[in-house]
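User: Working on a comparison across species. This one is 3-oxo-5-alpha-steroid 4-dehydrogenase C-terminal domain-containing protein from Dendroctonus ponderosae. Can you predict its structure so I can line it up against the others?
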Amino acid sequence: MIRVEVYSTKNKKIGEISVDEKVKVKDIKEKIAAISPKLVVGRQSVRSALKGKDIKDDEAIPLLASTRKVFVKDLGPQIGWSTVFICEYAGPLILYALVALRPRILYSSALNETSLSVTASVALVCWSVHYLKRILETIFVHRFSHGTMPLLNLFKNCTYYWGFTLYVAYHTNHPLFTPPCRILQALGLIIFIVSELGNLSIHILLRNLRPPGTKVRKIPVPNSNPLTKLYNYVSCPNYTYEFYSWLGFTLLTSCVPAGLFALTGLYQMTIWALAKHKNYKTEFPNYPKQRKAIIPFVL
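Assistant: Here's the predicted structure for 3-oxo-5-alpha-steroid 4-dehydrogenase C-terminal domain-containing protein from Dendroctonus ponderosae:
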């Protein structure tokens, strides 16, 4: 056993702990929490140098026996990933339905007597199915590699999803809403349905790729489900299908706010996809070279 000094990232000494030379970071976090109750495990980011990079929980700290120091950053109040996801998805599910079924919330009394058009009703079903699917996936499908995220993310994510919901719902459910031609509606609905099934297929594949209670990482490859074949072309087909879903919804409604929602989502998912694509190529030397990050053959 060796005595290790624990410092904050402000170079202020927190205390000392006794650990084995090859101890894993997750065990170091537990010992730090024992000497500093405020720094619960979920709030900690551990590194070997003051300006160093965070070290993963299942890794050992290099040269610990010689440096005998670790640095811990307080990540601030944390909240569970599943809690954040359920909150950010439940809002759109409820808010969109309220605007559609209780129009006097947003529209004047002179307009709220008009019933929903068939297109607006279909859009309501599509929107509701999407977010109900997301909630159920959060509960029954997703396995999170990290238990928590910063509490601030709850407010940022909810502002984004809830705000866009009201923006889109106001236009698609407006009494003066004019549906596009039937061919465009049919095309949009087909794209939406196929993409939702594709997104679910990828999430189930990713769940099965990681055994319960582990953080095992493997190269994802298509299985017997034809909707997973998109893995032959991109590293993050779940993001690809997500964008295609909202592209289909945009065609179905021909609503500009829906298109802006789709493009904003694509921008953010492209950032995530490029980072994951880079990590895949770094982690796996035999990673398929033909894959793009999110858009087949393009990006």
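For your comparison, note: The chain has three domains: 2-75, 77-178, 180-298.

User: Helpful, thanks.
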